[in-house]
Amino acid sequence: MTIDLFRKISEITSQGKACVLVTVVEKEGSGPMTVGKKMLVQDDGSSVGTVGGGALEYEAMDVSKQILKDRQSRLVSYRLQEGTVEEGLKTVPMVCDGRAKLFYEYLFGGECVYIFGGGHVGRALVRQLGLLGYHIILVDDREDVFPELPEAGQCIHESFQSYARRAPIDESSYVIICTPSHANDYDVARALLDRGVRPCYLGMLASSAKKADFIARIEKEYGKDVDLSHLYSPVGLDIGGASPEEIALSVAAEISAVKYRKNKICHMRDR
């Protein structure tokens, strides 16, 4: 792998983004590719490098786009001869009459966690989730909360509502709302609902009374049928403790449960 390609992969994954590294791992007969050739395909459809060009490269681009959706690496064998059918090989419209295998490696820098609020709990969350390899985006309108948080991949100094309106949050993202005020918490949630953005996890630091008030306001504004099945509030698993660090531990555990689709939490000794 060239140094430039390695740097590009590092740049992409350090931002919590995904890419696909396509490598020619085997070649038999004629064809424009050579073993070891690599191409990096990014989530915006752009690419760096080459696996030989032509129809095979177009095919590699299409497969990479699908892999970026299903997030699964795979090995694909090809027959480089138009009109030829060979069991176990995918035919590519070429006239080389060769065979090739491409390995598509899905690369991802870690799931993105957006933390709105850099107070005591927010800072503890940055440290705890940083240990688990998540790409963390910390958002706060107070610039003085950012120093000494190397675990944060990105620090966004902006109003909570403003960033929530433009943040690249999708169904694979985790969002935690723990701003200094109820009004800011509500504004962040509204901004996401208005955009139709639905992260897989929307955690909100709240008491039961605050949650009830929040739900009532949301239902009044968006209707009783509003989908809040992804909302986790009061946030975290009930494992005890009330310090910021203990709350962060319970939230990290809940995120892990969502990530690994654990609907029932139990002790290992009871399995």
- Which residues form runs of ≥5 with pLDDT under 50? none
The shape, in one word, is: elongated
What is Rg? 23 Å
Question: How many strands in all?
Answer: 12
Q: Classify the secondary structure makeup into a structural class.
A: alpha/beta
Main sheet: strands, sense, barrel: 6 strands, mixed
Percent strand = 25-35%
Count, helices: 7
Mean pLDDT over the residues: 91
Molecular structure report:
The chain has seven helices and twelve strands. It is α/β, with parallel strands linked by helices and 271 residues long. Strands 3-2-1-6-4-5 form a six-stranded mixed β-sheet. A six-stranded parallel β-sheet has the order 9-8-7-10-11-12, with helices on both faces. The chain has helices at residues 3-14, 54-70, 120-130, 160-164, 182-195, 208-222, 244-259, and strands at 18-28, 38-42, 47-49, 74-81, 90-91, 95-108, 112-116, 135-140, 154-157, 174-177, 201-204, 231-232. Strand 10, helix 5 and strand 11 (201-204) form a beta-alpha-beta unit.
Secondary-structure blueprint of this entry?
Layout: H1 3-14, E1 18-28, E2 38-42, E3 47-49, H2 54-70, E4 74-81, E5 90-91, E6 95-108, E7 112-116, H3 120-130, E8 135-140, E9 154-157, H4 160-164, E10 174-177, H5 182-195, E11 201-204, H6 208-222, E12 231-232, H7 244-259
Parallel strand pairs: 4-5, 7-8, 7-10, 8-9, 10-11, 11-12
Antiparallel strand pairs: 1-2, 1-6, 2-3, 4-6
